[in-house]
Amino acid sequence: METAHSVIRKYITFLKLEKSLSMHSVKAYLSDLQKLIDYSGGVEKVLLLKSPDLEEFLCQLRDCGIHARSQARILSGIKSFFRFLILEDYLREDPTELVDAPKLGSHLPEVLSVEEIDNLIRCIDLSTKEGQRNKAMLETLYSCGLRVSELVTLKLSNCYFEDEYLLVEGKGSKQRLVPISQKAIGEISLWMPDRAALDIKKGHEDFVFLNRRGSGLSRSMLFRIIQDLAGLAGITKSISPHTFRHSFATHLLEGGANLRVIQQMLGHESIQTTEIYTHMDKTYLRDQILRFHPRNNL
């Protein structure tokens, strides 16, 4: 296997010779690609990305406030890199083929109404082995505004249900405390007996959500679960796990919650250690979620 440095060096040559780009343009392409490399954790991991992973990457860009036009440019550069990987036989399939650029002039992603979320969750077949798990996952996504990567790596040791908080590990191992609703806690509790019946694989004992083989869930699996449920619920909007996160923030904002609190809950701040939260008024944060989130006003 070639080194990451070798792959990038070949890509630079490709941009210069095959695409006839100036050095200035090459640097711009590399700068955009670096965002994906940082997101993935290295060039080697970029080679393993699938379409849902790239969709989530675009959602992260949107979360950071990057304009749709800039998102489209970044995606164009990434598509160029994956075309290069195909041409050089590093990959057989291009995961960017199914990823659409954001619509210019459209500043916000799709939002589900509370009724649409309820309808989608009602379509879960609770008679299946995965039914209660899926219900617990979607309630947690919506009640806490988690990223899909944060949900699938959520640990039991980071769940403080008596205090109604989760300790969430975000990008770059940054941590934040997120209030969780009684509704979500109840659904997770109902999932626990099914979880206990699994043959849990070594190294996955602390994950809250597991697949039927006792291993951690993939982001693409959650993406497919939501897509299937949207079809059953008759929802025609283009939705993904991130839609629940954006709906969480939108419903809080529309309900009158403080924007600063919403930003903290979403993890948009650079939070390096858990100790930083000792300087925050956790009672106030919980009060904002309990007062304004639809799941706490049933």
Describe the structure.
- With 298 residues, the protein is mainly α.
- It has two domains: 4-87; 114-296, hpI Integrase, Chain A.
- It is 54% helix and 4% strand.
- A three-stranded antiparallel sheet has the order 1-2-3.
- A hairpin with a 4-residue loop joins strand 1 (159-160) and strand 2.
- Helix 6 (114-122) crosses helix 10 (219-233), helix 7 (131-144) packs antiparallel against helix 9 (182-196) and helix 11 (241-255) runs antiparallel to helix 12.
- The longest helix has 20 residues, at 68-87.
- The protein is globular.
- The chain starts with a helix and ends in a 6-residue tail after the last helix.
The first-level CATH class name of the largest domain: Mainly Alpha
What structural category arises from helix and sheet content?
A: mainly alpha
Reported CATH architecture of the largest domain: Orthogonal Bundle
Q: What is the domain total for the residues?
A: 2
Note the beta-strand portion: under 5%
Instruction: Give the mean pLDDT.
Output: 83
